[in-house]
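Each letter names a residue; the fold follows as tokens. Both lines appear below:
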Amino acid sequence: MTQQDQQNTHVNEQNAGAFTLTRQDNGVAILTMDVPGESMNTLKAEFGDEITAMLDEIEADSSIKGVVLTSGKSSSFVAGADISMLAACETEADARALAVGGQNVFDRIERMAATFVAAIHGPALGGGLELALACHYRICSDSPKTQLGLPEVQLGLLPGSGGTQRLPRLIGIQQAMKMMLTGAPARAKQAKKYGIVDDMVPLSVLIDVAEQFALKAKPRREAPQKGLMNKLLEQNSYGRNVMFKKAREQTFAKTKGNYPAPGMIIDVIETGMNEGIQAGLEAEATAFGKLVMTPESFQLRQIFFATTDMKKEHGVEGVKPEKVNKVGILGGGLMGGGIAYVTATKAGVPVRIKDVREEGIANAMKYSFDILNKKVKKRFMRKSEMQKQLSLLTGSLDYSGFQDADMVIEAVFEDVELKQQMVSDVESHASEKTIFASNTSSIPITDIAAKAARPENVIGLHYFSPVDKMPLAEVIAHEKTSDATISTTVEFARKQGKTPVVVKDGAGFYVNRILAPYMNEAASLLLAGEPVEHIDKSLVKFGFPVGPVKLLDEVGIDVGTKIIPFLVEQFGSRFEAPAAFDKVLADGRKGKKNGKGFYVYEGKKPGKDVDESIYPILGVAPSSRLSEKNVAERCVMMMLNEAARCLDEGVIRNARDGDIGAIFGIGFPPFLGGPFRYMDSLGIQHIVDTLSTLAQNTDEKFAPAACLQRMAKENKTFY
């Protein structure tokens, strides 16, 4: 019976809101979950009575030998629990009760006399996978849409409905722990390989195969044994102790103790494996209750809600975007290659790359080939699919093929005259409606559009490096950019897999404007004698993925400093960079890209050790005088002060956009919620007092922004 047949044929159908039970003559019942009015299924607390009544019905009917649990949604199974219900929890006990409720329902499914089979197509995430794990068998479709995972850690939580106990017993402790600690989902083929699912089949026969499994006896699953080493580690208490100890060490090295959830995940799995599943479930529910009430989880959940809301928004309210069917890209460097990759592979749109050299075009195409080829080698993708995506990329040394491009994205050198020439060329060789989007990181869009015949089509579309990994895109409109251009650009960035944030035109836009004073302060500390590794470790411990000095090496010292003159010209001396940058550049140090920067890029561990020869060039003798907390505070306070100014000046539309921009663009610690939520949590008066003290004792550049002083007096917050 196909999924379509299942939807069309109803025998003895009973409808109970989100769940529909369809009995069949062969002894199999189809239990379909289809939450009304939602594009994806999510588990809600109020479904408890519904599913209990449905299970009572199944239990009372001896003719039902097996049950296939499936989704009424065409492209998803169950996307997880509805996390908005966590906001109603006032205490740990409230949150724990939610977990216990889910555990009880899933325990009952596991104990049912009928054989339950989860027929999975599309995402089965969080509570969705926990529901499937409670079933006796799991069958999934081979669709690229199908993915199975427990991503709760990304919300500062752990799986609370039995996932911490069932997954390790099904696929082994190490693999299960890895999935829970990273939150990364497994694709269909991986899920079959790991043993999460019992079979992977084409969607057309998913229900048929699931029905066959539903008529089988329940499986007797032995402990997963994948290799001798796995058996030695997982099947005895000494081996498990070693494994859990190592997991804690590695986890702390990554999180610096800033995230409580990973440690609790390890604890709960260990409890269950050493003391039994019942003890594990109790520990899981207790830990879930604690984590829901942590400030870290609160902030991570706010980020989730913010990005979800942003996906529903147009660039300009009420203005529908035009469809982009073809894109031209100017420049075949790293940025151009990255933009071409996300355009072809994520948006699925043909790309025409123009460069002045054939090598540039070849390098841009190689960028996509290298990424896709890795996926093929890891069997995440078929070779035919790779070839199909690569066929969307073509190149040219002239503007042939640009005449039908709906958008042209410029990624050439940071030179205003060159960019103005690009605008003129595109206006000559493309259509009157073609959008010209500049990937500039520093030059105001007003300047780039200054000589444009059609300035309404010119906009900024600023990506972050590496383009295939960084989730943010800044969309920058100048005064003459049309609303249609803004909405079309926002929607297209979204199709490229980006989270677009609309910002006002001006030097540095938003992200680089708040990054510059942070980096400048790190340079000031370095010139004052603070060692490079001390500065970087201080900010990594604070929660940034890399320290500011290492970041400068990664971005390119020459690139990172190009924005400074534009900022100084527009905003004055507070953006003036220490002379350190000039000295470093004069020594030919550009960072990682030329193997010469603040860190050593030769030997077995490139980029791990500081290049000690940097200190004589700067004329300093390194000696740590400030604590890690003081170092982090000075750099971060400069960033917070500038973020407040950006919001006050309307550079960003709201605090939410500012938080998402900082987290996704420069790795501001997610567990702190972004600059604005962090300022709210500390208290605006505290921010003003700290900045005032730094201004008095260190440098007047720390003087608190007028808007912060005003907010402190009026006892206001950003949210």
Notes: The radius of gyration is 28 Å.
